[in-house]
Amino acid sequence: MSQLSLEQIAAQLESDNSKDRMLALAALRNVPPEDAVPLIKKVLDDESLQIRSMAVFALGLKPTADCYPILTRLLETDPDYGIRADAAGALGYLEDPRAFEPLSRAFYEDTDWLVRFSAAVALGNLKDPRAHDILIAALDSDEVVLHQAAIAAIGEIKDVAAVDQILRFAQSPDWLVRQRLAEALGNLPTPKSQSALNYLAKDSHPNVAAAAAISLRRLAEQPDATSEF
């Protein structure tokens, strides 16, 4: 299929057929952000929730000056929790440090677990050390998926101070939690991380054991790192 021109994509986004609009959005994948974003904005209020979700996600991958205010507005005001969660995720992809505040508010104030999960993941993508307190709070949540998100984010921000708090999940009954722990510890060079990874490398679930082995290799590539602690 030949590549569509911007004019063709714009026309297709006006189609009454939702499949046409979806295909037009997908066609923006290789279009520069400054050309893509004005077209993405056409379908941010689409009647199809799936198209809206795609459009919100696309804003995170096509950074322009317009994207941040649009995404924060959606995160804070959209009535659909799925769109709020998409907006949180897209803000993480933008990696704009201004997103720390709205993502923090979303984590503490939004009542839907999916939005809080996306906010925690996005805070990890920002790699902002200020997220420490929020992520520790997520570890104390009743939601297992928040444990997964927080542990992964702690690894992303390389929050060595949180190692003791995440090690309590080494025997979590949820293997995905243990896998996220094994992955995160590879970014947290301390003697306790090394010991925990040796333990997780023998985990009964192959994904956990494989993640631990990879993280052990990563730590081995920084031989002096653990001597500082």
Question: How is this structure best described in words?
Answer:
The structure is a single chain. The protein has 3 domains: 1-64, Alpha Horseshoe (Leucine-rich Repeat Variant), CATH 1.25.10; 75-157, Alpha Horseshoe (Leucine-rich Repeat Variant), CATH 1.25.10; 167-229, Alpha Horseshoe (Leucine-rich Repeat Variant). Helix 5 packs antiparallel against helix 6, helix 7 packs antiparallel against helix 8 (113-126) and helix 12 runs parallel beside helix 14. The protein has 14 helices and no strands. The chain starts with 5 loop residues before the first helix and ends in a 9-residue tail after the last helix. With 229 residues, it is mainly α. Helices cover 66% and strands 0% of the residues.
Quick rundown:
With 229 residues, this protein is mainly α.
Global shape = elongated
CA gyration radius, whole angstroms: 20 Å
Fraction of residues in β-strands: under 5%
What is the chain-wise order of helices and strands? Answer: HHHHHHHHHHHHHH
- CATH architecture group name of the largest domain: Alpha Horseshoe
Whole-number tally of structural domains: 3
Low-confidence stretches: none
Instruction: Determine and state the CATH class of the largest domain.
Output: Mainly Alpha
Overall mean confidence score, pLDDT = 94
CATH topology of the largest domain: Leucine-rich Repeat Variant
> Which class best fits the helix and strand makeup?
mainly alpha
Kindly state the percentage of residues in helix: 55-70%
Give a quick account of the main beta sheet: strands, pairing sense, barrel closure: none
* Number of separate helices: 14
How far the N terminus sits from the C terminus, by CA atoms, comes to 57 Å
Tell me how many strands there are. Answer: 0
CATH superfamily of the largest domain: Leucine-rich Repeat Variant
